[in-house]
Amino acid sequence: MKLTRLTVLLCLALALSGCNLVVLAPAGDVAAQQRDLVVVSTLLMLLIIVPVMALTVFFAWRYRAGNREARYEPDWDHSTHLELVIWAVPLLIIICLGAVTWMGTHLLDPYRPLGRVSEGRPVDRQVEPLVVEVAALDWKWLFIYPEYGIATVNEMAAPVDRPIRFRLTSTSVMNSFYIPALAGQIYAMPGMETTLHGVINKPGEYVGFSANYSGDGFSGMRFAFHGQSQADFDAWVGAVRQAGGSLDRTAYLDLAKPSENEAARRYASVEPNLFRLIRDRCAEPGRMCMDEMMSIDAAGGLGIDGIVLLQPVEEGRPSALSAFFGRQSTLVASICTAEEAAAAAATTWSASLRPFVDPKPLLGAGLPRPSMNPFASPQVDARLDRRQPFGT
């Protein structure tokens, strides 16, 4: 029986020894500091957990029914020394744990620029961080390198010991961007931008993925992260540029369609400000950007007259599929005159797409701001009487 137990324990130990505990052996300084925080916090908690567990076994054995030599004190109910130990030790541990957690939370804030490359090596202020713009699509990751004018899907690379600044957003639902070897995870959310700083200290091939369930293709939403020397990274950038392909609006709208288990793709060029268009949800031609909409709202809005600017979403377009629980009913086309809309339709990117917005009702510019009470004046009533229905 003892031999069987020993064999089982030995097999279990061998199985666990084959695990790649990347969280406890990361290749990036930020992830290493997070590892240290987890280890220190665990050890502090074990200072009280281990003695309590050991004393539980000790008391059960010491005061068992068969031990006639144990002291029997049925009237014992208080010990000042014991009360002091029971309350003081956990209180001291909580104070230490709170101090360590508070300092670690601020020092490892994902929005905080890095102060060091690794332990004892401060960041060279003359070295600019590598900016990587990340968009979580359904169900794949898009990486844009604005410094190099390239983009990739489900593949990214970074030079060793150079700080990385991620700018993240999402196209439809919330995802969690996570490279365990590099840094902690952070959420990518539609219509918002989050930031993550990190650095890789060892060359190698690492895995990144989404740590937040986001639909059918979630399990295949993984990508390769290459930690490389500067020379190898420059060669990787050159290989991406030689791969050909351009990621403009038209190509992006096709890429944004839901798909699963996508292979890595490379784009030699990318449309400027594409990340901003994705973040502000206006990559589709004719759709108003969120920052423009918020600017109009901050100035007082367009009032009731702005209703005519709403256009129905054409079936099959990405915006019709961007709502998680159903299609959107309308979108804001633009704020312009009919002449401005006609001029915009003649641009290169608009002429290549089938127009889906009738420019005639786009008359937001110069309209008087209506009264707070829509029935306060005959003029407002007249405007309401001649209002066109949606989509006309």
Automatic annotation (TrEMBL):
Q: Is DNA-binding set as a keyword in this record?
A: no
Q: Which InterPro entries match?
A: CcO_II, CcO_II-like_C, COX_ARM, Cupredoxin, CuRO_UO_II, Cyt_c_oxidase_su2_TM_dom, Cyt_c_oxidase_su2_TM_sf, Cyt_o_ubiquinol_oxidase_su2
Gene Ontology BP annotations: ATP synthesis coupled electron transport
Q: Name the domain of life this protein comes from.
A: Bacteria
Please give the residue ranges the record annotates as the region Disordered.
367-392
What are the protein's UniProt keywords?
Answer: Cell membrane, Electron transport, Lipoprotein, Membrane, Oxidoreductase, Palmitate, Respiratory chain, Signal, Transmembrane, Transmembrane helix, Transport
Give the membrane topology, semicolon-separated if more than one: Multi-pass membrane protein
| Compositionally skewed regions (Basic and acidic residues) per UniProt | 382-392
Major location (coarse): membrane
Q: Where in the cell is it found?
A: Cell membrane
Membrane spanning residue stretches = 37-61, 82-104
GO CC annotation:
plasma membrane
Signal peptide region: 1-25
Cytochrome oxidase subunit II transmembrane region profile domain: which residues?
15-112
Under what name is this protein listed? Ubiquinol oxidase polypeptide II
Q: Which organism is it from?
A: Mesorhizobium australicum
